[in-house]
Design goal:
Number of domains: 3
Largest sheet: 5 strands, antiparallel
Keywords: Cell inner membrane, Cell membrane, Ion channel, Ion transport, Membrane, Transmembrane, Transmembrane helix, Transport
GO molecular function, one term: mechanosensitive monoatomic ion channel activity
Number of helices: 6
Radius of gyration: 34 Å
Structural class: alpha+beta
CATH architecture of the largest domain: Orthogonal Bundle
Pfam families: MS_channel_1st_1 (PF05552), MS_channel_2nd (PF00924), MS_channel_3rd (PF21082)
Mean pLDDT: 80
Helix content: 40-55%
Order of helices and strands: HHHHEEEEEEHEEH
Protein name: Small-conductance mechanosensitive channel
CATH topology of the largest domain: Helix Hairpins
Family: Belongs to the MscS (TC 1.A.23) family.
């Protein structure tokens, strides 16, 4: 029993001596750490707002703000360790060795971070752009160091590791996608009339879709792009008229189906024939028979 009391007394004395000797250092280190974290947060917000006021891209602004914030936190941690009287030189050597091992173990993850840094600095695309890469379409919702988040028309979120974007062929159509379609008309059709009918159908479809989506007051990028309509080629049984129409990415298929129906309805209403492939067979009678 006396031995247990002696052990408790020994640990009590040890803790008391530590608090007496290092209490002010520990308190000072905590104060320095809290103040440093507060300053890092405020400076990060200030850098982000400053970049946005100067019309810097949102992704790049967030990246710069986070880098400055991390740099301040690292300096604060070093100051805190010095306040406690802890030498940081052994830690630097240990961190260097650990970084080498981690780099080999997590090289796939690190390649994602390197690719993300490339995307952010080169501004390969920005938030709100529509991109197609690796067979995937979508509007860019977030650009992080490791991944890029896309959203398609169905509301699905697609997370792509950045290493699968950098070095690949990336199609960037800003905030719009193009509908490419065609329809055949008979050779005896008045082509000017057919082109005018299709153009009117496209215009009416765009207007009705904008009203349905309440976009009367907001001009999108697709509204500034003029549809292309013209003769695409001459087939055996029809003159093929092609049309290309830019629409918002998140309503691509909705607009495409509505547009195709409007075109065929307009052609039928104007009695413009849409022919099907035909084969003409000539039968000759043998004179000898």
């Amino acid at each position: 029993m006396e031995e247990n009391i002696a052990d408790v007394q020994k640990y009590y004395d040890l803790i008391a001596d530590f608090l007496v000797e290092y209490s002010f250092q520990l308190l000072g280190a905590i104060v320095v750490l809290l103040i440093g974290l507060w300053i890092a947060k405020k400076v990060g917000i200030w850098i982000n707002n400053l970049c946005l006021r100067h019309h810097v891209d949102v992704t790049l602004a967030n990246f710069l703000a986070n880098m400055v914030k991390i740099a301040i936190i690292v300096m604060v941690v070093i100051m805190t360790l010095n306040q406690l009287g802890i030498a940081i030189t052994p830690f630097v050597a240990a961190i260097g060795a650990a970084s080498l091992g981690a780099g080999l173990a997590f090289q796939g993850m690190l390649s994602n971070y390197a690719a993300g840094l490339t995307i952010i600095l080169t501004r390969l695309f920005t938030i709100g752009n529509t991109i197609r890469v690796q067979g995937v379409h979508g509007v860019v919702k977030e650009i992080n160091l490791a991944t890029t988040l896309l959203e398609n028309e169905d509301g699905e979120l697609i997370l792509i590791p950045n290493k699968h974007i950098v070095g690949e062929i990336v199609h960037n159509s800003a905030a719009a996608r193009v509908i490419e379609a065609e329809v055949g008309v008979a050779y005896d059709t008045d082509i000017d009339k057919a082109l005018a009918v299709i153009q009117e159908a496209i215009a009416q479809t765009d207007d009705s879709q904008d009203k349905a989506n309440n976009n009367d007051s907001e001009a999108t990028e697709s509204d500034t792009l003029t549809p292309n309509i013209g003769i695409d080629r001459f087939d055996d049984s029809a003159i093929v008229i092609g049309y290309r129409v830019w629409v918002p990415s998140l309503s691509f298929f909705e607009r495409k189906y509505a547009l195709n129906k409007a075109v065929i309805d307009a052609l039928r209403r104007e009695n413009i024939q849409i022919p099907f492939p035909q084969r003409v067979v000539h039968q000759y009678k043998d004179p000898a028979s």
